[in-house]
Queue: 4 jobs
Job 1
Amino acid sequence: MTLVLSHIGLAVSDLGAAVQFFTEALGFEAGATFSSGDEVADLAEIDGGRAQQRMRYIMKDGFRIELMCWTVPGPLGTPSQSRAHLGLTHLCIQVDDVDAEARRLESYGATTLGRTRTEVHKETEDIIMLCVSVLDGLRIELLQRTPREN
């Protein structure tokens, strides 16, 4: 049996704003926009059998995200604000400098979550992590790895 990772899905309240952020701020490439309706209600686990959405795939480095904007039933809930919640909690992006990247992302509307800044010092490397909140509260973890010289 062959298994191939296809994509992850991310529900957003504003498809245009999400595509703009991911393409302009993070360098993703946008694919075509698609629409679907009631035929996906059961697949999406939407009660009542009524569904309408617009979606767009975005890609970077072989990684693909399906941005989904539900007009029926409309956006539901709020993103996790704790990495201890079940389910998808964040996206992680490795960068050269977490502070510089956080400031750059702020120019695209991100909010730096200062209390999340964490430093881990290992024998072979120093690791700095910092989260920013974007779009509807999606957390993006910025990860900086610096090898230690022995």
Job 2
Amino acid sequence: MARFDLSTAWGRFRTVLDYLWQDHAYLRLGFQNAHWVSPELIRTNQPWPFQLGWWKKRGVRTVINLRGGGYETSFYVLERQACRDLGLVLADFAVSSREAPTRAQVAAARTLFDTVEYPAIMHCKSGADRAGIMSVLYAHHRLGLPLREAMRELDFRTLHIKQGKVGVLDYTFERYFQEGEPRGLSFFDWVEQPEYDPKQIKADFNASWWGTLLNERLLRRE
């Protein structure tokens, strides 16, 4: 039996209650951390079904879920059902906020941005970290922005706190500027080099104690 059943009033109530408390959705009732990356893409935090309806009215056709999919959690079953009801395409794409992206993830991100139907909304849980690195890749790949300019998508304006463990995302690009750029490699070519090692990049990164405390303990970022 599915843990979250939206076919009954009681099942939907239990699902929404779990979503409110376990996914901290009460914090997102009136705050979406929404920012337009381009006229065709907006980044945001985990949307409520009613917020997806609002975005549909604004022309959005695709929802890019960066938290992954294919499993039964309250946020996912509510989002999946809302997209079905609204006629929105739901594209699931798993990415980590505390790991350097793998070669496969970078390649898949480029394919995603080349193939989804726009306008699109892209979200993680808070709209700060995973949405941040994917927005950098989108702006660099699809918009052709210089990487240093695209990296404005990873800053405090969108509540990204790079001093915590999520700072490994910024550090990945810093390593590129140190190792790949001087060799004339594009970021995407550098990622394909044998020496690109996401695990080593994570091991080399040092998060500050206060950034870790803020992100992991107080804000409880995913």
Job 3
Amino acid sequence: MNRLNALLTTAAVLVAATPAFAQDATLKNSDNLGMVAMAAALAIGIAVLGGAMGQGRAAAAALEGIARNPSASDKVFTPLLLGLALIESLVLMAFLVAAGFLGPLSGK
């Protein structure tokens, strides 16, 4: 229950902070460039945390399944690798989105 409370509190804080980032339409002449950089860093941090937790749970479930039925290791291994690759692709997608937020900061 503590995880759920922490998750809901974090979500509430992020939703409440969203209007603060939506005030300026242009980023080049804005005073909130540091806030945008912090938001991008927070976004990638949350994505990495979620991806790591997902990969850990997937690996634990696969290893538990193999431990219970060693003859099924060939059938579990390929979906495990596919699932881990898809989880990692979501983390990379979050990185690209965060880098897209920071793109206007470079002045190009």
Job 4
Amino acid sequence: MDIAPVTHQFLFVGSTDTSTTCELLNHFSQSKKVNDFTEAVKLLSEETGFIPALIIIDGPLDYKELISFKIWQANWKKNSYIPTVYNELALNSEELNKLYKQQLVDDIINLKKNYGILPDKARFISGMALKKDNAKRVEPHQHKTHPLMRLFDIVVSATAITLLSPLFLMIGACVKLGSKGPAIYSSPRAGQGFRIFKFYKFRTMVADADKKVAELSAQNQYSSEVKGPNFFKVKDDPRITKCGKFLRNSSLDELPQLFNVLLGDMSIVGNRPLPLYEAVSLTTDEWAERFMAPAGITGLWQVSKRGSEEMSTAERVSLDIDYARTRSLGGDFKIMLKTPTALLQKTNV
């Protein structure tokens, strides 16, 4: 390589071509290299002030580790989004297609031929980040949503929020009077393409519910002995408040998600956005396809099996995958028509 030096710091993760990486490290003198994502997390977590302009992955594709790293990055306390690219030379054709389909990195480049564009690549992708919330970004290759469905989402969510505002206030007061803590509960969730966003709902549990998961693991409705996705749901969950039980059974706790729809994080119809610990367990080829569909308030699973105790993990995810594969505008309207009869569930799960 014969290139004029520039001042840019990058983070190289792994290496399939040691000679190329060494030359790049010499050229981009402020850059650093780690062997895997575990070392990358450790380096970025240290108070060294090192924040690379670009993360360059140059190693065999480890699907689960890549998604786990993306989820960690989305919740990074420094709230700094770092663009990620993959070295094309480290991937086979099947892996290339997978990354393009799932859009898990910002770009895929031939590191040996296109090293000169790294600084421009970093500036271009970073310029697309949302300035108002550095932990959340605009996807350069975001999954497309049917224009009519997006218009429908905006009209329905805006209208519903306006008309239901008195109900919002009444429910908020009920939640606050029933137990200590905020009326609205928010948590990071993984939606379409594993994109992380802040998910809203009325709080239905005690304020420290997340800390009690380990105590209730033995009562988990979804078996942890079966290899595969890791879901957590308990029948007659003791963390649920009296007001919360009513809100859950009537689905009124879902109303704040109308704001997620209005913001574009979710759609009225789609697959449920998952807590991050559940999303990480769905990163295998067998399960990840369910993330090709948008996150939604209602969906195929809700109108088919919502509240069913006998529903298995595989059955639940299979419904999500079926929806992702067959999604259509007409199908979404059919699901919406079936939603009212599915709102009242008969079991406390």
